[in-house]
Design goal:
Helices cover 20% and strands 48% of the residues. It is an alpha+beta fold. Strands 1, 2, 6, 9, 10 and 11 form a 6-stranded mixed beta sheet that branches. The chain is globular.
Length: 195
């Protein structure tokens, strides 16, 4: 019985060692969403609406997803909403992360399906960053409001310039929601982020 008790205590001690090691393999991720700037003059009502807006995003298993598309259409836990001019700090698993952006440019359409087909796209793994155990990685987002037109409506969309700061060193910088030749159109995307 004494031997059995000794084995149990040893196993229990090992369990605590494993769990404390798992806690050490975490780091800090900060999303710092700067106040937006605008390339166009905004009416007071529009500016007030934009200031109440922000960014929907989430992280899991080495991936960070930022969405300009309504989160009900994205198959990812976009559990964070950060307003312009605010920061959000999370404790996350240490390791390498890839940023994917579900972008949107309004190009018309009379149904949700057509609007998404014409205007939504994915920038997959557009930027990478590393969160070191015990370290801090800051994703600094600089939104610039651009004016887009579709039919007779005006839309004000932020261009999202992202700077990655890993423990005080800028390691990457890119506009993550720009539609380019590398962007994957909504209907062409066959990955895990769509229902």
């Amino acid at each position: 019985m004494t031997k059995l008790r000794g084995v149990f205590v040893f196993a229990l001690a090992g369990l605590f060692n494993i769990s404390s090691g798992a806690q050490e393999a975490r780091g800090t991720l900060v999303l710092d969403l700067k106040p937006f700037t605008s390339e166009v003059e905004l009416k007071e009502k529009v500016e007030k609406q934009l200031k109440s807006g922000g960014l929907e995003w989430g992280t899991t298993a080495g991936q960070m997803v930022v969405s300009m598309v309504g989160k009900q259409y994205i198959k990812f836990d976009l559990s964070n909403f950060t307003r312009y001019g605010e920061k959000k700090t999370l404790e996350v698993e240490a390791g390498e992360y890839r940023i994917t952006c579900a972008g949107f440019v309004p190009e018309g359409g009379m149904s949700v399906e057509k609007i998404l087909k014409k205007g939504a796209y994915f920038n997959v793994d557009i930027l990478t960053f590393t969160v070191k155990a015990g370290g801090t990685t800051t994703i600094e987002v600089h939104p610039t409001i651009r004016k887009e037109r579709t039919f007779f409506l005006k839309f004000f969309l932020p261009e999202l310039l992202v700077k990655v700061d890993e423990d005080g060193t800028v390691t990457g910088q890119k506009v993550i929601n720009e539609r380019t030749e590398a962007s994957i159109a909504w209907d062409d995307y066959k990955g895990p982020l769509k229902f």
